[in-house]
Specification:
Strands 1-3-2-6-5-4 form a six-stranded mixed barrel. Strands 10-7-9-12 form a four-stranded mixed beta sheet, with no helix packed on it. It has a three-stranded antiparallel beta sheet with strand order 8-13-11, with no helix packed on it. It has helices at 16-24, 46-54, 113-116, 206-213; strands spanning 4-10, 27-34, 37-45, 60-63, 69-79, 86-93, 100-109, 121-123, 128-133, 142-145, 154-156, 166-167, 174-179. It is mainly β. It is built from four helices and 13 strands. It is elongated, with a radius of gyration of 33 Å. It has two domains: 4-94, Ribosomal Protein L25, Chain P (Beta Barrel), CATH 2.40.240.10; 102-179, RNA Polymerase Alpha Subunit, Chain A, domain 2, CATH 2.170.120.20. 14% of the residues lie in helices and 38% in strands. The N and C termini lie far apart (117 Å). A hairpin with a 5-residue loop joins strand 4 and strand 5 (69-79).
């Protein structure tokens, strides 16, 4: 059950210069493969692909033209290490009757009590969770309510329960927690009490010095 459609074109293997030219034209290289089929080199429209990602579409039909469409998922993306631009994508063909393993985003819902009432800081170290299910059961994301989390309280993968879905991620992985607020220690300068008498050096005048010499 595809959620959207993405047109692709077949391409020949290219050198780096050819791939750069594709990107200048607003296109992106990719590979399509599935079990029992040889990998196929493809080209797709970059903006159309970015639109799928922004809408969090998990399953889509690849349109190869001439009525040939194949339900697929994103298996892997190659990003530029500096700009985070998408350079290449691997797309995997699926069967609607077979379970698939896929990663979906974790969305934190609500305001943690420990952050709202106690000044704590909500941390969200795990942003995605890997699941396995039929394509029709793949969610856009997993919503996790954190409103009851107090200071030093946490949620792990084992606390997530999904219907008709098997969770593949490590059950002990930390998803969210509230940590105590950071306290800055300010060193106080030594202050001399107002009533404390300071001993001043003895001052000898010129006349007193002459008298002692006589």
């Amino acid at each position: 059950m595809a959620e959207a459609e993405l047109k692709v074109e077949l391409r020949e293997k290219q050198r780096k210069s050819g791939l750069k030219q594709l990107r200048r034209e607003g296109k992106m290289p990719g590979v399509y493969y599935s079990d029992g089929e040889a990998a196929v080199l493809i080209t797709l429209d970059l903006k159309a692909f970015q639109g799928l990602i922004s809408r969090r579409v998990n399953i889509f039909d690849l349109d190869f033209g001439k009525g040939k469409k194949k339900p697929s998922i994103i298996r892997e993306m190659q990003l530029d290490p500096v700009s985070d631009d998408i350079l290449h994508v691997d797309l995997y063909g699926i069967k609607t009757s077979e379970k698939i393993a896929i990663k979906v985003p974790i969305n934190l819902v609500g305001t943690a009590r420990g952050a709202k009432e106690m000044g704590g800081v909500l941390e969200h170290p795990m942003r995605e969770i890997e699941i396995e299910c039929l394509p029709k059961d793949v969610p856009d994301g997993v919503d996790l309510d954190v409103s009851e989390l107090g200071i030093n309280e946490r949620l792990r993968v084992e606390d997530i329960h999904l219907e008709n879905i098997e969770i593949l991620s490590d059950p002990n992985s930390l998803v969210a927690q509230v940590v105590p607020p950071k306290v800055e220690v300010i060193e106080e300068e030594e202050v001399v009490a107002e009533d404390e008498e300071l001993e001043e050096p003895e001052v000898i005048t010129a006349k007193e010095g002459e008298a002692e010499e006589e």
